[in-house]
Each structure stands twice: as C-alpha cells, then as structure tokens.
Amino acid sequence: MGCSSSSKVMTTDRTPDGLDFSATEIDQYGLPLPINFCKKYQLVPDKDDRATILGHGSFSTVFKCCSLENKNDVYALKHVDMSRIARRGGTEAVERTKAEVRRGVSVLMKLSHPSIICLSNYFESPKTMSVVLELAGTELFDHVVELGKLTEMEAAGILRTVAAGVQFMHEKNLVHREFCFRNFLFLT
User: Fold this and answer.
1) Which of 18, 21, 72, 126 is at a distance of 20 to 30 A from 34, taking alpha carbons?
2) For strand 61-67 and strand 41-43, is the pairing parallel, antiparallel, or unpaired?
3) Under a CB-based contact definition with an 8 Å cutoff, are residues 33 and 25 in contact?
4) Cα–Cα distance measured from residue 143 to residue 132, given in angstroms and rounded to the nearest whole number
5) Could you tell me if 4 and 114 are in contact, meaning their C-beta atoms sit under 8 angstroms apart?
6) What does the pLDDT look like over 102-161, one tens digit per residue?
C-alpha cells in the first residue's frame, strides 16, 4: 500500500516552502500544467480522448498520467487549479490551499513506508499545483461495497496494514487528520 525507500524519486521545480517558480504552463487536454511536469509526464487519455479522471477531492481532480520515458510507468496526478479555487473562495482560499498542498507534499517527502502512498514528484506554477503520486487502485470503501462484506481474515489484514502506517506516522510525530474509508486505497 505504499512505496519502498529505494523506489522513491523526488525532483521538484519548486520547493514546498515557496521558492523557484516555473512560470509557464503547457495545455494538455484543456488543463494548464507546469512545463516541467510536461517534460517528464503526460496525461493518459480515456476512450473518448480526454484526460482520464481517477477521482475528485475537495480542491483537486486526480488524473492518470504516465512517464514520457516509459509509458508503462503510470501515476496519479493530483491537479489543483488555482483559478477554480479563486472563483470559489477568493485570494484567501488560494493561499490556504497552497499552504495545505505544500504541507502535504512536505509530509509525504519525509515518509517512505509500504502502507503509505508514495510521492513521486511535485510541480507548481502560478496557476496550478501538480502532485504526482503512486497509482493506487480501489478505495477501501468501494472494495467493501463491491464485496458486500469482509471476512474476519480480510478485515484483520487491512487493519494490520493501516495500523502499521499509522504507527510509522506517529513515530515521525505526524497525525492523519482525516481517518476514513475513502482515504485508504488498495494498490493496483
């Protein structure tokens, strides 16, 4: 459910503390994306030749992307469109969102554990924030709904994996503040 330290790659064109902007974007499937993202990745099209959407968050959309070097290396791109945030909540909302995304990125940069999703890369431009993450599969909630119920062994295995991730975070003095079914994913 995460990554090992040997597979973690972290390159940025902007640090989470706000330095070193990449000022230009390239449009892919109608999305403005930081140019340095586009030098390493591309969005994966769906059957209708649109960007494949994996899900939506409270302030972002998650798309499927792949490495330009190896199309078989697929990832989840958490794309935050600052103009959308500005329309919904103004300048203060933009600043809060930037701070929250940067904090999340800086936390993930410190974590390498099999039970925690792996941060692969991070890019920021004036209009967008792009977080490239390990591609996970089904949400735990959807998994349980699909099965109808879990056996005691399945539930114990899931709980053991979650507890290992939480223990690791606590050892790093970190707390997960949104502990719910939808935030637990099975890797593909």
Assistant:
1) 72
2) antiparallel
3) yes
4) 24
5) yes
6) 999 999 998 999 989 999 999 998 889 999 999 988 888 888 888 899 999 999 999 999
pLDDT interval class at 11 (50, 70, 90):
very low
Q: Is residue 155 within 8 Å of residue 144, measured between CB atoms? A: no
- Within 8 A by CB and 6+ apart from 78, the residues are 57, 60, 61, 62, 130, 131, 132, 133
Q: At residue 143, what is the residue type?
A: H
CA distance 119 to 112: 9
Taking the C-alpha atoms of residue 110 and residue 32, their distance in angstroms, rounded to an integer, is 28
DSSP designation for 72: T
pTM: 0.80
